[in-house]
Amino acid sequence: MTTSGEEIKGYVHSIETMGTLDGPGTRCIVFMQGCPLRCNYCHNPDTWQMRTNDLYSANELFSKVARYKSYFGKKGGVTVSGGEPLAQAEFVNEFFAICRQEKIHTVLDTAGFELNDSVMKVLENTDLVLLDIKHTDPAKYHLLTGGNLTIVLDFLDYITSKNIDFWVRQVIVPGNNDTETDILALSKLLQGRPSLKRIELLAFHQMAMDKWHKLGLDYHLKEIAPPDENIMASLREVLVKQGLPTKIM
Ligand code: SF4
Question: Is 127 in the pocket of ligand 1 (CB under 6 A)?
Answer without folding.
Answer: no
